[in-house]
Write a structure and sequence with these properties.
With 209 residues, the protein is mostly helical. It folds into two domains: 72 residues; 115 residues, no CATH class. The chain is globular and about 50 Å long. 73% of the residues lie in helices and 0% in strands. The protein has nine helices and no strands.
Length: 209
């Protein structure tokens, strides 16, 4: 029997495992769309009142002007908040977060970082996250929560003055919001780069197997 025929026969006997269930894939792509819309519209909002000595190129912003950007930002905000909340509840209720993201150890993270830097980090079993992935995914969840809360404190500083005060005031909340945005952009760059380097992980997030 040829190797190709043997592989086909094996595939028939051993159906591919579901790596990413449907609810994870749906929420993942919904979050991705919402986050990209929020980042691009957020850059346009930032340009109206910059925190630093630079602005973002108009070509990568969304909304055209401040009012238009705010409309896009608020629309995407509700999508992100609702979808993100459902994702968190489902992740905790199903035990997915506990199984996928824990434990995270300093030794494990350092070891996997060294392996990644020398291109020796294995990606054979997509159903299990390495320590670098665990740290990144757990961290981006925390950043996601903080960016939503800081955004709310900026949006409603009077009605939610207790939340704004928690961040140290309106101005500091803007800086926190910007830093969280920057961390999310950095995460997206790394995330996309890893998907390109390990294309089967992208395939799993598209079709689940």
């Amino acid at each position: 029997m040829s190797s190709l025929a043997a592989a086909e026969d094996y595939a028939k006997q051993e159906p591919a495992r579901v790596i990413q269930p449907a609810w994870v894939r749906a929420m993942h792509w919904t979050n991705a769309v919402a986050m990209i819309l929020m980042i691009m519209s957020g850059w346009q909002i930032y340009n109206a009142s910059p925190l630093f000595g630079f602005t973002f190129p108009r070509s990568i912003t969304l909304g055209g002007w401040l009012a238009g950007a705010l409309l896009w930002h608020f629309a995407a905000m509700w999508l992100l908040m609702v979808n993100g909340l459902i994702y968190l509840i489902t992740g905790f209720a199903t035990g997915r977060f506990r199984k996928k993201l824990l434990p995270i150890t300093t030794t494990g993270v350092i070891s996997d970082v060294k392996a990644a830097l020398t291109f020796k980090l294995a990606h054979d079993d997509l159903s299990r996250y390495n320590y670098v992935q665990k740290l990144l995914y757990a961290g981006i969840i925390v950043v996601g929560v903080v960016i939503v809360l800081s955004g709310l404190s900026i949006w409603k500083p009077v009605q939610l003055q207790w939340l704004t005060a928690l961040f140290g005031g309106y101005d500091i909340a803007r800086y926190v919001h910007f830093i969280c945005m920057s961390l999310i952009v950095a995460f997206l760059i790394v995330h996309v780069a890893l998907a390109i380097l390990v294309p089967k992980s992208l395939r799993a997030m598209l079709i689940g197997r």
